[in-house]
Structures are given as structure tokens and as C-alpha cells.
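User: Working on a comparison across species. This one is ABC transporter permease from Oceanidesulfovibrio indonesiensis. Can you predict its structure so I can line it up against the others?
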Amino acid sequence: MSMVSQLLEATIQAGTPILYATLGEIVAERSGVLNLGVEGMMIVGALAGFAVSYTTGNPWLGVFAAGLAGMLLASVHGTVCLVFQGNQVVSGLALTIFGVGLANFLGAPLVGVTTAGFSNAPIPILESIPVLGRALFSHDVLVYISFALPLLLWLFLERTSLGLSLRSAGQNPEASAAVGLNPVAMRWLGTLTGGFLAGVGGAYLSLAATHMWTNSMTAGRGWIAVALVIFAFWRPGRAIFGAYLFGAAMSLQLRLQAMGANVPSSFLHMLPYALTVLVLVVSGVRGRGRAAPAALGVNIEPSE
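Assistant: Here's the predicted structure for ABC transporter permease from Oceanidesulfovibrio indonesiensis:
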């Protein structure tokens, strides 16, 4: 039972940065903006968060800086696509390449440096629950926030007028504009929110999961987050299951290696990414694209 509890705990820790990034991309895509630059926003956020936390000694300032860095990179995507009507797919791919290269270049002097970051803050009494107590209630504050975030985003998207306006920009921007709303502003809101959450997801890697900086530390998690948006059918609640599914795959491959399992290490390393392909295939067969916002990836033509 102890081993099960440890695996569940590691699953949640590994899935948390993916969950933040997935939720951010869900908000962006529900507004109609396809942003494939999640990987770039995550790694820039990881570097910004680490650098600020290391300089100031305050990890909360680091998280805020990471979110701002993700927003800054997302604003580049917004400018290209929402202002200059650029192709959203090409812009997102360029954003990932640029973000990864920029973070690796600027972060070179910090490789191997450590910072205090976030420590685990077990919740009294709840931590003592057999099996699930340690798995759910012995984490750092960023994990606890991630537990509540899907519900908060669901309430925002489904139960508020601002969330309805944002969804209308992704579903039918012409109808949204016809009733006096501003679909471009809503797409800006979705894009920047997505960038902020992706940056926070990156900060989790450098400030909570490792407390150090290494080049390319996101290791493809941003691409997994993009795939999970489809798996979740653009619903925040389903993103929880998807993120922890991949967290379990990552945790399992590390533990199998530590146990000396007679399985090639290259196969174990590819396991989470092979699962990504499988998830996309299954989601495509079951979903048939019915949950995707109708105007996703379609630019809003400027009015005359």
C-alpha cells in the first residue's frame, strides 16, 4: 500500500505542470485561438520563475514572473494572429522554437544552480488518511491550487457572462460582434490567460519539482498539454484525468528504471509520448471533433 501511495503521489506531482498548461490552452482555444506555442511559454516561464526566485528569495514572486513571461510570449502570438491576421499554426510553432531557444540561451549561466522554491506543506489529519492521504494532501501549495483550478475555470466558462462572451468568440465571432460584444478582446483574454497558466506550469518544474534550472527541462510537456486539450474535449474537468494519466506514465517509467526492470530505457522514455499518440487516436474516434469550438484557428476579419 505504501508503494501505491508513493506512485499516486508521484503521479500528481508529474501531472501538475501538464494540468496547468492544459487548462491554459483550453481557455485559449475556447476563445478561438489555437496556440501551439505552449512548450515555448512553459520553458520561458520556468526560467523566469527560477531566475526571479533565485534573485529575490521569494518563490511567489517567481511564480508571478513566470506567468507574466508566459503572457508576454503569448502576446507575441496574439499580435501576429489577432492584429496582423497571421496563420495561427505557423505562429504557434515559431513561438515554441523561439521560446525553447531563448530559454536555453539565457539560462545557460544558471544550469545546475539551485533555489529554495516551494516545499511540501502536508495538511494535518487529512495526510493521515490511509493510501490517499499522502497521495493527495502532502504536496506543495501549487498542487493544491491545481486541484481547485479546473472547477474555477469551469464556473468561469459555463456560469459567468464573461465566460459566455469568451466562448462565443470561439464559436461564432460574427454573431458575437452582432450583439455588441468584442470577440477580438475576448480572444486576447483567452490568449493571455493561456500564456499565464502555461508559464505557471513551467514554474512548477523549476520551483517545486526540481528546485533547479536545466536546459530543455519541459521535455515535451507542452506538446502533451496540446494533445490533452483534444482528449479533454475542451472541458477543464476532463483535463484532470488526462494530466494525471500522463503523470502516471512518467512516474511509472522512472520507477521501473529504478527497480532495474529488464526493459530498454529508450522504450520507457518514449512511453508517455507514445501514449500521447494513442490518446489522440482514441479521442478522434470517439469525439469526431464535435466538441471543438467552431471558429478555432479561424482569424476574425477586420470590419470595414
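For your comparison, note: The mean pLDDT is 90.

User: Helpful, thanks.
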